[in-house]
Amino acid sequence: MKNYIVLLLLAIMAVSCGPYQTALKSTDNEVKLAMIDTLLKREKYSKAVNLFDQIIPQYRGTDKAEALSIKYAKALYETRDYPNSAYQYERFVQSHPASDNREYAAFMGAKSHYHMSAVYSKSQVNTDRALAKLQDYINLYPDGEYAEQANGLVSELRFKLDRKAYEIAKNYHHRNRYIPAIKSFENFIVQHPGSEFMDDAQFYLIDSQYLYALKSRNELVPERLELATKYYNTFVSRFPTSEYREDADEIMENINDYKIKNNI
Q1: In total, how many domains does the chain have?
Q2: CA dihedral sign, ordered 229, 235, 240, 246
Q3: For 196, how many CA atoms within 13 A lie in the half-sphere containing its CB?
Q4: Could you list the residue range(s) of the whole structural domain that residue 33 is in?
Q5: How many other C-beta atoms are found inside a 10 Å radius of the C-beta of residue 118?
Q6: Do residues 141 and 191 both lie within one domain?
Q7: Same-domain pairing of 259 and 207
Q8: In whole angstroms, what is the distance from residue 124 CA to residue 131 CA?
């Protein structure tokens, strides 16, 4: 038993005094640089970051700054430290405008912001920022190496914003808050013209306006039903084969029945 404990302690000491720990404690930056390259090859990014944090300030303004900066940013990105990777990539772009890695850094900085975008149900401040950063890259490098990927990320983020806006409007509708629902769906249709939720929004706008009309004072019903009819005509013109077509037709039949019964 005692021999086992001794061996265990020796193993722990061996690990604690291994090459990485030696480099971490060393005052020789060349030792740290060599270990960083080894760790990056082995994809041990967290350990590499620890060493980078020790030496990066000492190499700013030197011939090695450019190569170290891009490696540091990549290591941060691979550890999913996206706020810091975004910062380091953007700093690289500003500090090394003539670098061959400038386009790569510009894209990866924007992609770091993309990863900070929250799910659609939460605040989309980071999504807006990521879209702006990706658009900056696309504008700067329209035929760039990463342009296709950047456009794909933009589409994903726009879909997220579309969904958030649509779900907010739909929530008003389902809670029978027809005035804000109508306003929200109208804004959605204008502000999200290419959205996959467009026929959904157009249908719920009809339904919201129709139900709002029915809850109105008698003298206001005709005018509000006319607006629902206008929304219906737009809907069937744009989406004649929509999954909501039958429901929309039923609303229109109800509107016509109401007009007949009330001599409108």
Answers
A1: 3
A2: negative
A3: 8
A4: 1-59
A5: 13
A6: no
A7: yes
A8: 11
